UniProtKB/TrEMBL annotation:
Signal peptide span: none
Bilayer topology: Multi-pass membrane protein
NCBIfam families: efflux_EmrB, PRK10504.1
GO CC annotations, alphabetized: plasma membrane
PANTHER family: BLR6921 PROTEIN, MAJOR FACILITATOR SUPERFAMILY MULTIDRUG TRANSPORTER MFSC
Transmembrane feature ranges: 17-36, 56-76, 83-103, 109-130, 142-164, 170-193, 205-225, 231-251, 263-283, 295-316, 337-355, 361-381, 401-424, 444-463
Protein name as catalogued: EmrB/QacA subfamily drug resistance transporter
Major facilitator superfamily (MFS) profile domain mapped to chain residues: 18-470
Localization annotation: Cell membrane
The organism of origin for this protein: Roseateles toxinivorans
Length: 481
C-alpha cells in the first residue's frame, strides 16, 4: 500500500462518531455471514430447491469477498475512503434488496455476489480509515471498541435468522439491512473523512487476474464435482485450469517488482506454516456453522428458531476463550497449543456424529459451547502465529493474504462439506428432501467424521514449528476474528 496523505484533523464529532460508523460496518458484515445459515432450509422450500444444494448462496458471498480483499487498499487510495465506503454500503444494501426479491437460486446467487462486493470493502476500508485517522497510541483502543459489534453479529445472527424465517419470512433476513444501510450512508457523509494517497500506488493487475481466476476456477470445479452441475470431465478441466492459474501467479509473483502478495512472506517460517495450517484447519471449522443449522433442522427436526437459538452457546464459548487464549499461548508456546488444539478441534467436529434425536438440549448446548471454545482458541492461535513475526514492510501484504485465505478456506469448507453430504445421502438427484421421508442423520454423521478428520490433519503442519517460533508478542493481531 502506498504512503498515505497527512493524518487528517478530525472534528470532535468525527472523532467521537467515526468509530461507531466503522463498528456499524463490522456488524453488518459479520451478521450477514451467520444469519443466512439457519434460514437455508426454509429458503430452499420457497425456492423449490434441494436444501442440500443451497451452499452456493453461501460460497458465492465468501468467494466474492476473498476476490476483492486484495484490491480494497488500492481502491481506497485511488478513490478515497469516504467514496469507497459509501459505495460499499450502497452495493451491500442493493445486494440485500436483490436477495430479498430473488425468486430462484440462480437469482439469489447473483444477488449474493453483488452483496459480497460491498461486504468485501466494508471492513478493510473501515479499518484503513481508522488506522490513518487516529494516532498510533489510540488505534488499539479504537479497534477494540470496533471489534465488539463484530462479536455481537455472530451471537445474534443464527437465532435472528431462525426467528425471522419461522415467524415472518426469510426475505427479512436481507431486508433488515436496508435501514441499517441508510443510517450508515447518512453517518458516513457526515463523519467519514475522505483520505487518499499522496501518490498513486502501482497495483499488480496481472497477478490479481491470475490469482482471482485461479480461485474462481478451483471453487467452480469443486462445486461441479459435488453438485454434478457440470460433467466430471468439465469439472476436471476446470480444476486443472485453476491449478495452472495459481502456478502461473506464483511464477509471476517471483518476477514482479511489486507483486500482489510479497514472496518474502513465505521466507518467514511462522507465516508460511500459519497460512498453510489455516487452509486445512478452516476446512473443518468453516464448514460447521453451515452444517449444524441444517443438521438440526433436516436431521433432528428442530424448528428454525430452535436451531438458531441452539447455536448461541458456540459464540458464547468463543467469547469466553478470548480472555485466556493469549495467556495460554504465552505459557505453553504456539507448537504445543496448536498441535493439541488442532487435534481437539478435529475430534470435536467428528464427535457431532454422536448427536442424534435422543440427545438432550442441555447436552447439545454443552457440546456446542465446548466446540466454540476450542474453535476460538484455534483461530486466535493461528492468526497471532501467522501475523506475529511480520515487520512494517510485510504487515500489509501479509494481513491481506491471511484475510483472503480465511475467506477462501471457509468457502472451500462449505463446498467440501456439501459435496460430502450429497455423496453420503445419496439424494443428489432428488429435487427436494423436505417431506420426502429421507433420514439424513447418517449422512450428516458421516460428513462430520470426514471433515473432522480433515481438520485434525492440520496438526501435522503445526508440528513443523520449532519450540521457540512464534514467541514474539502478537496481541495487536487479536482483532482478526
Amino acid at each position: 500500500m502506498s504512503d498515505p496523505s497527512p493524518r487528517p484533523v478530525l472534528t470532535p464529532a468525527a472523532r467521537r462518531f467515526l468509530p461507531w460508523v466503522v463498528a456499524l460496518a463490522f456488524f453488518m458484515q459479520t451478521l450477514d455471514t451467520t444469519i443466512l445459515n439457519t434460514a437455508l432450509p426454509g429458503m430452499a422450500r420457497d425456492l423449490g430447491e434441494n436444501p442440500l444444494r443451497m451452499q452456493s448462496a453461501v460460497v458465492a458471498y465468501m468467494l466474492t469477498v476473498a476476490l476483492l480483499i486484495p484490491a480494497s487498499g488500492w481502491l481506497a487510495d485511488r478513490f478515497g475512503t469516504r467514496t469507497l465506503f459509501l459505495w460499499a454500503i450502497g452495493l451491500f444494501s442493493a445486494g440485500s434488496l436483490a436477495c430479498a426479491l430473488s425468486s430462484s437460486l440462480n437469482m439469489l446467487v447473483a444477488a449474493r455476489v453483488l452483496q459480497g462486493v460491498g461486504g468485501a470493502l466494508l471492513v478493510p476500508v473501515g479499518r484503513l480509515t481508522v488506522l490513518r485517522a487516529f494516532p498510533r497510541e489510540e488505534f488499539l483502543p479504537v479497534m477494540t471498541f470496533i471489534a465488539i459489534p463484530g462479536l455481537v453479529g455472530p451471537l445474534i445472527g443464527p437465532a435472528l435468522g431462525g426467528l425471522l424465517v419461522e415467524y415472518v419470512s426469510w426475505h427479512w433476513i436481507f431486508l433488515i439491512n436496508l435501514p441499517v444501510g441508510v443510517a450508515g450512508v447518512l453517518a458516513s457523509l457526515r463523519f467519514m473523512p475522505q483520505l487518499k494517497s499522496q501518490r498513486a500506488a502501482p497495483f499488480d493487475w496481472g497477478g490479481y487476474v491470475l490469482f482471482s481466476l485461479g480461485l474462481m476456477l478451483l471453487s467452480v470445479a469443486l462445486q461441479g464435482f459435488g453438485e454434478q452441475m457440470v460433467g466430471s470431465a468439465v469439472a476436471m478441466v476446470l480444476l486443472v485450469a485453476g491449478v495452472a492459474s495459481m502456478m502461473a501467479y506464483w511464477l509471476h509473483a517471483a518476477r514482479a517488482p511489486e507483486p500482489l502478495f510479497s514472496m518474502v512472506l513465505f521466507t518467514i517460517p511462522t507465516y508460511r506454516i500459519g497460512i498453510i495450517g489455516n487452509v486445512f484447519a478452516r476446512l473443518g471449522s468453516g464448514a460447521t456453522p453451515f452444517l449444524m443449522p441444517m443438521f438440526l433442522q433436516l436431521g433432528l427436526g428442530f424448528s428454525p428458531s430452535a436451531a438458531g437459538l441452539s447455536m448461541v452457546p458456540t459464540v458464547m464459548g468463543a467469547m469466553l476463550t478470548k480472555t485466556v487464549a493469549i495467556k495460554l499461548i504465552k505459557r505453553l508456546g504456539y507448537r504445543r497449543v496448536l498441535v493439541a488444539n488442532t487435534l481437539a478441534l478435529g475430534a470435536m467436529i467428528a464427535s457431532f456424529a454422536l448427536v442424534d434425536r435422543h440427545t438432550t438440549h442441555l447436552w447439545l448446548a454443552l457440546h456446542l459451547g465446548l466446540f466454540g471454545m476450542i474453535n476460538s482458541m484455534q483461530f486466535t492461535a493461528m492468526n497471532t502465529l501467522t501475523l506475529g513475526d511480520l515487520d512494517a514492510a510485510t504487515a500489509s501484504s501479509g494481513n491481506s493474504l491471511l484475510s483472503v485465505v480465511m475467506q477462501l478456506s471457509m468457502s472451500l469448507g462449505v463446498a467440501t462439506s456439501s459435496t460430502l453430504l450429497l455423496l453420503f445421502s445419496g439424494v443428489g438427484n432428488v429435487h427436494s428432501v423436505l417431506g420426502a421421508g429421507i433420514d439424513l442423520v447418517p449422512a450428516f454423521h458421516a460428513t462430520y467424521l470426514a471433515i473432522g478428520s480433515m481438520a485434525a490433519l492440520a496438526s501435522f503442519i503445526f508440528y513443523q514449528l520449532r519450540h521457540h517460533e512464534g514467541a514474539r508478542d502478537a496481541q495487536d493481531t487479536m482483532g482478526q476474528e
